[in-house]
Design a protein that fits this description.
This protein is mainly beta. It has two helices and 14 strands.
């Protein structure tokens, strides 16, 4: 599969049947919309599988991604995981996350708040890479026992 933007090639993906099956089984709600005639985008996704880390750049430049629920098994959000997801508005981070990679939410201008399944102290204990929220819209993290204001 090749994704194009404005006629220029952006990324190449070789999907095996195993990869396609994994995607179908992992995303319980995935709607594909077209941003333009050449570039499909994931609109929303919720994982039902057991994964422990989003790989570096896992959702990078998924311009149409608006909402994602990460699995409870997740322990780390990789570097650049959601970089330049311009439409991302909603994300739920599970309590098991202990690391957020560098530039994980870089350029996520529509993302103004995060929902975290732990306490404010647990949020503070998460190791966050440099510039994890650079040029994002994140202003607050909603935790079980209160909110944490975010300053870029």
């Amino acid at each position: 599969m090749s994704i194009r933007n404005n006629g220029r090639e952006r990324k190449h993906f070789k999907l095996t049947e195993k990869d396609k099956q994994y995607i179908r089984e992992t995303c319980k709600k995935m709607r594909i919309e077209q941003v333009n005639e050449n570039e499909p985008a994931i609109d929303e996704c919720a994982f039902i599988g057991s994964i422990t880390m989003t790989s570096s750049g896992a959702f990078e430049e998924c311009y149409g991604l608006k909402s994602i629920v990460l699995p409870n098994s997740l322990e780390a959000i990789g570097h650049n995981a959601f970089m330049v997801c311009l439409s991302l508005e909603s994300i739920e981070i599970p309590i098991g996350v202990t690391q957020i990679g560098t530039y994980a939410f870089l350029g996520c201008a529509s993302l103004e708040e995060l929902r975290y399944a732990g306490t404010t102290k647990q949020w503070a204990d998460i190791v966050k890479g440099s510039n994890w929220n650079m040029q994002s819209g994140i202003k607050v993290v909603h935790c079980l026992d209160g909110d944490v204001e975010i300053n870029e």
